[in-house]
Design a protein that fits this description.
Blueprint: H1 2-25, E1 28-32, H2 42-59, E2 63-68, E3 74-75, E4 80-81, E5 85-86, E6 97-100, H3 113-124, E7 129-132, H4 136-141, E8 149-150, E9 167-168, E10 174-176, E11 179-182, H5 186-192, H6 198-209
Parallel strand pairs: 1-2, 1-6, 2-5, 6-7, 7-11, 8-9
Antiparallel strand pairs: 3-4, 10-11
Helix pairs in contact: 2-6
């Protein structure tokens, strides 16, 4: 009986060690999202954008780590989403890629300096960065769009000189190297009746990351 117990304990220890090793080896993707959104659209942001991004990436075998500037829970009338950490605590070396939900940045709210720094580092390290609608402003502020094709609802150069040298290519998903952009997020789709490209954006990132798994 004692011998059986020892064998069981050893087997359990090996199984747990294997699972821990597998978890540690799972590639991580950083999901950057806004702290707040217009209450009229918060359900859409969380349910149709953030949740879709997270689910698709996890189903593709990636661990998603969500971050905001304050790290506090985001609550809508139907769902609550709790980020994993603050943007200031992010170590870009830990991630194989970055995806940024529509931020409202550069339109109604300022671009987060922490997000700009993260994008610059990821771009320098050759990691794929995907941005939805107004979060493309983060890429412009990080000065990674020069010479790159990008998507937006309208040409960003009319409002932000940081787009100078970038090539506006419409509102659908556009990929140029490791930069992947989408011009119509679910909120814009809901408010203006335009076809959103959130699923295609996330899938393009997954495809870009596949060799890294």
């Amino acid at each position: 009986m004692k011998r059986i117990m020892i064998i069981l304990m050893i087997s359990l220890s090996i199984l747990m060690s294997s699972r821990l090793t597998k978890a540690a080896d799972t590639p991580k993707v950083l999901l950057i999202l806004p702290n707040v959104a217009d209450p009229n659209y918060l359900d859409t942001v969380l349910n149709k954008e953030v949740s879709v991004m997270k689910s698709m990436l996890e189903n593709a075998g990636f661990k998603v780590v969500a971050a905001t500037t304050d790290g506090l829970p985001i609550k809508s009338s139907t769902v609550s989403f709790t980020p994993d950490l603050k943007l200031s605590d992010v170590k870009v070396d830990d991630y194989v890629g970055v995806i940024i939900a529509c931020m409202g940045s550069g339109e109604r709210t300022p671009v987060f300096p922490e997000a700009i720094s993260i994008v610059k580092q990821a771009f320098t390290q050759g990691k794929p960065v995907a941005a939805s609608h107004s979060s493309v402003n983060v890429l412009a502020e990080a000065e990674v769009l020069a010479g790159k094709r990008y998507a937006f609802r309208i040409d960003g150069q009319f409002r932000n000189p940081k787009y100078t040298g970038a090539i506006y290519s419409g509102s659908g998903v556009v990929q140029d190297g490791n930069i992947i952009t989408c011009g119509i997020c679910p909120v814009v789709s809901q408010s203006e009746g335009l076809p959103e490209c959130n699923t295609e954006l996330t899938q393009a990132l997954i495809t870009a990351l596949s060799p890294k798994k």
